[in-house]
Every structure is written in C-alpha cells, then in structure tokens.
Amino acid sequence: MSSELAMALASLRSIDLADDRIRVIKDSVARAIELSDPGARVSRTEYFNHAAVPDLVVKWPKGEPTRCLYLRGNADPVELMDGLPFIEPRNAILLPLSSMDEYDVTASAKESLDAAARERGAWILEPAVVDVLATSRQERSPSASLVGQALIRGGEGVTSVARSQQLIRTVEAGFVGAGELDGTAVEPALGVLREALDVRQASRLERVLRAVWEGNGGRPIDFPGGDSLGALSDDDLLYLLDSVTDDSLNFWRRIGGAVSSAQLSRLHVSDFSANLQALVNANLERLQIKGFRVLREDVYLGEPEVYPRWRAEGRLALRGAGWTAYLAPTRAEELPPPSDAEALTLSALRARASRMSLGISQLELQTDSRAVTYQSNDGASVLTDSELDSLATELGSDEVSSAMYSPPPSGVARVDFGKRHVVGQTNATFAAGGVLRSGLSLLLDASDDEWNQVLAFLSSGLATEPQPLVTGTSDD
Amino acid sequence: MVGESAHEKGRIGVAKAKQWLNMTTRVANAWTHLDTPMAELLEFEWPHGKHQAFSFDIGGRFRGGKVDGQSFVAEVKNYANESTLPAQYREFLAKCYVALDRHPQRCDNFLWISWAPFRAANWDQHRSVESVRNALVEPNVIERCFGHADTDLALASLDPEKLVKVSKSIWLITMNDREEHLTLTREHFAEVIRSIELEAGS
Question: In 10 A of CB A234, how many CB atoms?
C-alpha cells in the first residue's frame, strides 16, 4: 500500500539527525490522523517514545474527550503490555512504529494485550492501520470514513490491519443492509462496532444505522440492535455533517427519514458545508415546513461565493446572491421579522407565475387605503381572467399584495408580497421542495439565469443521480 | 541485529534502563536498538578491519538544566557482578571515540549503565583521558580502529581534543534493582508529568 505514513517511515533511513526523524514521524502521524478525522486537531509534545508522556495530543472542538497518543518504537506485545501501567490517562492511543507480525508471540499474549488495552480504554493500532483509515476516507464509502473517524475518537483494544479492513467491510455492508432492511447484514456490523469502539462511538454509529433503517421504512422493533439508543441527536447529525466524506445524495437520503426541518433549524453548521447541501437537497421532498420568508441581505465580507446554498445557523435558510429565504419548520412565528416590502404588479405576477406554470386561485389588489379580493370559486386560476384587468383599471391600482395558490404536490399556501413570505393556511405544512420552488418563483425578483440556477438547485434531489452544485454568482 | 537483542537478560536491562531514564523526567527522547525507526541511529562502524558494525543500546536527548538538548547514547550491562565488565568497558571507551569521530551530533554524552561496578579500586580513573587512550590500543580493537597493530603509531595518530571530549562525556551509572522502590510512585510521577505537560501547554 502506498501511503504517506508508510512512505515516511520508509524514508527515515535517509535522515541522519534524530530530531529530524522524530519530526517526520510526528508530522506524518498527525497528518494521517487529521486526514482520517478532519475534526481532529493534533498537537505535538517535545517528547518522543516516552514511557508516560504522550508524543501527540488529539483534540476535537465539540466535546469529544481528548486522546493522548503515544508513539512506540516497536510493537513487541510484551513491551507494550509492560508499558501500559505508565500511561495514566484513560483512552490513550498507542501507535507502535512497526508491525506486531515481526514478533513471535502467542495468540494468547496478543489477546491479553487486547484485554488489558480495553480495560484502560486504550487503543493500540499498527501503523499501517492509520494508512488504511486515511485511504478509506479518500477512496471508499461514507460509512467507511465514519468508521475511521469513530476509531480515532473511540477505538479500543488492539487493531491490526486485517481487523481494521474487516471492520470497514462489515460496517459498509451493514449500512447497505440497513438501507435494504436486511437485518442479517446489520447485526454483524453492530457486533464489530461494539467490539472495536468505546460505548460513546459505538452507540453513535448504532443510532446512525438505526436512522438509515427507519429512514428506509424499517420498523424500529425489527432493527437488530435490541433496545433503541434514542433517535439521531443533534450532536449525531452534526457529527455526520462534519464527518461524511462525500456529498452523495444516496447516503443522505438514507439518513433523511430520521431528520426533521426543526432539527436542522437547531444546528449551527459552518458555512459552506457540502454535506448540508446534500442532506437538505436529498430530502427536500420529505422535509416538512410551515413556510418561508425572503429577506434582502447583501453579500457579506468573506462569504462563500456559492449560490444558492443551504445554511444552518440556528435557522435553516437558502442563501442566494443578495437574498436569503428563511424556513419556518412548524409555525409562522418562527419566521424572522419582515424587513422590506415589494409592490408587485399584476403583469409581474403573471410573468413570475409562468415560471412554474402556477395557477393563482385568489389574489388581493390594493391601493393606499383599499383592498379588493378576487378569487375563483372552483379553485381554478384567475390570472388570465380579463375581468381582473378591468377590476384593476377601475380600482386604479394593479398592485397585488397577496395571492393563494397550490404548491405541489398538494395544499393551499398564501404568498404575501408585502412581507415576502409563503405560509400554509391553518395547520398546513408543506413538503419543502414543492413550496420553495413554487413560492420562490413568485417571490424572487430574479433574472432568468438566476432563477434557473435556483430551480436546478432545488430540483437536484429529484434526479436519480446527484447533480453538481451550482456555483458562482449570477450576473443579475 | 547488532547489540544484545538476542539475550533476554540484556533486553530486560535495556528496558529497565530506558524506564529509569524516562522516570528522571530529564529525557525528552529515548529509543533502544529494538525501536525500528530509530535503531539505525545507534549503529556505527569500526573505521578499519572489516568495518564491522557495532551498536549502542539506547539513544536519545536530554531536557532541562545544563544538559538541555544534549544527545546521548548508552550502553547497558545487566550483569550481577564484575564478570567481563572491565574488558567490555574498555571496548565501550573505544566505541565512544569512534562514534564521536563519525557522528558527533549523536554523542554529546556516553552513558555506561550497569548493575555491577568493576575494578572499584580504580573507579575514579575509569573516565580519565588515559583510560580512553589505552582502550583504543587494546589488542582486540587496535586493528579495527587504526588498520594496523602498531601501538606507538596508533597513539600518535589520536586526536587529543577528542580524547578529552570522550573522557568528559562519559557517565558511569550503576543501577540497583531495589532502587526502584525508592523512586517516585507511579501516581506521583504521573502528577509530575501532568505538570510538565501543563507547563508546555500541550
């Protein structure tokens, strides 16, 4: 296997100075760990191969317990066992810089080391395992990258190369099985996860597997893991958004059944997140929302130049160039206050409604002091009625303040052009995709190019194959 | 493999010596001739004869105080009594001179760590320049050091400054198994280490 750590170790012979060798080793290990777990931050100590002082300290920004990493000059199980009592903190990582296969020890000696490591919550791994994890993240499935990350955060016992590969294969099969409601594939995955990981990490991946299972219509009672460890928590979801390596819609569609727009609205996800785009777009027809409001918001300094894109910063929002559509998960009160008003003429409404061939069943024409409601009794569109133009002429105003329409696939929504929002009547909620595509077509003052970009973005989850994200600003 | 890896007693001695060095808290880096990525840095070769390789048992770097940042190599002899230590020590002195000549950056200090003293009546002479000089012309090493067995010629070719440097760099450390009961307990040692880590901001 060609990989950075293996190559770095092989290159040491050409380095004559001890300090330079140590620097190369530490840098390579730190990079491999950060590659396998981009959330990890690795700092170096001045020590090397010390009995009690770690070589590297691995930390995470979001409350994962710190792990001290001890490099070991050799993988002699006897020496590793003798050294364990000197390692004070629990959940240490021991990384011998050679393979255990070089030592002629009995299987029982290896088992004893494995048991002793577990007792202390310590993880002992062969150097090639680091490369397996880093390579898996780059080349394999999202679930493989989750396993690698979970091992670095909570691996326990002794992990050989063969064991790590077996673990990744079994968990990958488990994720596929969970998607296909095949318990016989999920059960071994749960087994190897519990064996390889501490309770925190094993439980988290079990909840993710369960989310895939239930997201694909599986009954909770049929899930092989026994009693539920709870739903996918906000923390789990953030972990997934931080961890999964690609923005494959398939993976996020599997998870999506366990995710609500209310949950997404609670998250604070760093902008830009490719995974957030995939998660929301893959589930846009499944996520329910009460409505949304569009606010004019200028491009801010340092903003990622990706439009449109999803943002989750305590509110789920679709960000366009110069505007933001904030989503209300369950109640209209969740919308931010309106900041501006727009006068929309009847002719402009007709033009915008034609973008999605929307029928308008009711609209309100207004003057400064009066308003007239015009509606069809049978729900048919009134936009082409010649009487409507006559009414506007008689009223002396063709300004439309609000309208009612049916966002696909069903329901009735009211669009308020003054407050620039779309909300469901009474208790109605909508599939986010349908109401956003239709509502934005009416609310957005966008060029054809920009509208087409927005529509393509909001339709990307409808396609069988993942669509590329639309990047760059429109020249509107 | 050069060194004592074939002998379990030797392996235990090296492990104990490294552990003791660690417990002093004054060793930042230490590795043994069994530690794959660093072992090669303990290996040197005699300049003449068959250019045979020889190896020290432990290498590393000190931290703190007067020795901060200095490198060291150590020879460990897990012997219960004098046995063949006098002859082995003389060979050690010759190796130190050769090692310093070849890779001075690895050899700021030479540690002789044994569990038994030897020739105690002359203990104060073991680190003298004279002892180093004499060691280099011992019959078993003179040809490996100089390519001939002419003692006068060999002595004349020695670098006086290097002899002094080797002499000043030698540490004679005599271990005792019972001593480990009078060192810091593991709990207290862990506290010391934690405070060092805290100080370093790690």
Answer: 12
Contact present, A127 and A96 (Cβ < 8 Å):
yes
A360: amino acid identity, one letter = I
Measured between beta carbons, the chain A residues lying within 8 angstroms of B34 are 73-74, 76, 79
Alpha helices (runs of H) in A367-447, residue ranges in sequence order: 386-395, 432-443
- Using a CB-CB distance cutoff of 8 angstroms, which residues of chain A are in contact with residue B28? 46-48, 50
pLDDT at A10 over 90: no
Q: Describe the crossing of helices A142-154 and A234-243 by its angle, rounded to 10 degrees.
A: 110
Is residue A124 pLDDT above 70, yes or no? yes
The continuous run of DSSP H or E covering A456 comes out as helix A448-459
- What's the pLDDT at A245? 66
A87 to chain B: closest CA residue: B190
Q: Where are the beta strands (DSSP E) in chain B?
A: 27-32, 43-45, 53-55, 58-62, 71-77, 109-114, 170-174
Enumerate the residues of chain A whose CB falls inside 8 A of the CB of residue B29.
18-19, 22, 47-50
Are B27 and A50 an interchain contact pair (Cβ–Cβ within 8 Å)? yes
Q: What is the residue-averaged pLDDT of chain A?
A: 86
DSSP-H helix ranges across B48-174: 85-102, 129-136, 142-146, 151-157, 160-169
Query: Which of A17, A46, A82 comes nearest B200 by C-beta?
Result: A46
- B139 Cα to chain A: minimum distance (Å): 32
A16: chain B residues, CB-CB within 8 Å: 41, 103
E-strand ranges in A379-464 read 399-405, 413-416, 421-424, 430-431
Q: Which residue has the higher pLDDT, A8 or B131?
A: B131
Token look-up 């929307």 returns: A358
Amino acid at A469: L
Q: How far is A307 from chain B (nearest CA, A)?
A: 41
Q: Which residues of A touch B186 (CB under 8 A)?
A: 85-86, 88
Greatest Cα pair distance, chain A, in angstroms, is: 99
For residue A412 the two structure tokens come to 């009735």
Nearest to A9 among B28, B37, B59 (CB): B37
What band does A134 get if pLDDT is binned at 50, 70 and 90?
confident
Q: Model confidence over A151-204: pLDDT tens digits?
A: 999 999 999 999 999 999 999 999 889 888 999 999 999 999 999 999 999 998
Q: Is the pTM of this model over 0.90?
A: no
Chain A residue at shortest CA distance from B188: A88
Pick A52's closest partner by Cβ from B22, B59, B106. B22
Assign B192 a pLDDT band (cuts: 50, 70, 90): confident
The rounded distance, in Å, linking the Cα atoms of B195 and B23 is 14
CA distance A44 to A30: 8
Q: Does B28 touch chain A (CB under 8 A)?
A: yes
Residues of chain A contacting residue B31, judged by C-beta atoms under 8 Å apart: 48-49, 73
CA pair distance B115, B85, nearest whole angstrom: 10
Residue A439: is it exposed, middle or buried by C-beta count within 10 angstroms (0-12/13-18/19+)? buried
